[in-house]
Amino acid sequence: MPPEKFQTLADLIQKVLDRKDVVIVCITGNKGAGKTTLGKLIRKKGFGPFGPGKIAVIDDDCMSVDTLFFFRRKFVDPCRGIDELRPFFRFCIKKPIRFYVKSNPESRITYADILLKVELPEEIRRQRLIQRYGEPKGELVFRQTQAYQNTPRITVEHELTARVQ
User: What pTM does this model have?
Assistant: First the structure.
């Protein structure tokens, strides 16, 4: 994600935190666009004025949870419908910034303060999927997802698009 988008995202998060205790940021995009990679980077390093200790990242139905000191475990809660991420909240008490990474977030949430759409040129996305799944499955997954429309049906307050090169 370009540095200016990180700054814009940080500014939007601060704007929301100035009037609310918690901000929900939803990262969406097609398969292979870099949603999980971005979520992992944010979880590990934080960004702007926000350190990783203030950030929770829920990727699909999984959250990496701090246990003792530097140990982590994965908490998995399969989606059973709209729950607004409540099963994960007990692990987010001291984390006011909560990222939810999902191609179709409307299967679990109805609202996000900020929607971050991640987009990648199709040829690069195709190459990433082939690298991830191998041939011929990567090509098949690419073809099956070409018609994806990055327009989640959730209510959002702010929307931001990051075109990754």
Answer: 0.92
